[in-house]
Fold this sequence. Notes:
Layout lengths: L16 H11 L3 E2 L1 E6 L5 E6 L2 E6 L2 E8 L8 H9 L1 E6 L5 H7 L9 H4 L4 E2 L8 E2 L4 E12 L4 E13 L13 H4 L2 E3 L5 E3 L11 H16 L1
Amino acid sequence: MTKPTAHTYFDFASLTERERYKILIGTVIPRPIALVTTLSKEGLPNAGPFSFFNVLTHDPAIVAIGVENYSDMRFKDTARNIRETGEFTVHIVDDALVNQMEICAIKFGPEVDELKEAGLETVPGEKVRSPRILAAPAALECRRHTILQVGAAREIILGEVIGVYVRSDAVNPENLHIDQQLMDAVGRMGGNTYCRTRDQFDVKTMTKAQWEAREMTQRNKETD
């Protein structure tokens, strides 16, 4: 029998906010990255990456983005724009987009167009006004569903996906199969570390009947 691995327990009640953050980003890995574009109510574009992000359900199709606003209670541009317009677009970040995504992470003022600074070409959305980044392998057009205030400066934005663009060479429109190698998505690890998704393997969940048959075969071998 393999010797159990030793574990260290951390009581979150005894940790600072920064310490809890370090534990979470080091254990919940890899995290998908949402490069979110929005427009202000005046029509100014904005882009910012978020790694506290995932899809939560498909019916309705809901994605969630965790946003940390400023300590003085000012909203980040993304959060403010979504509140004011009710729209945003989530882009999946691939390996080729990493450097431009990092430019969008710089804390520019609301008057700066991060997309222009990063040299990212965009077109208007199909069902939302927020711009779509042409180089992204996928773009999820979203309408604001719910905003959950979970702390003084932190909120979770739920968006309903109303349409998705997928690069044509990566998707079969007949059976909806998406080639994840061609998507070449990256994930966020702890600190400044990212990971690629090129090293993949398949695991298929057994049916209950398959499990029982396997267990029966194993027991018969042990009694022979």
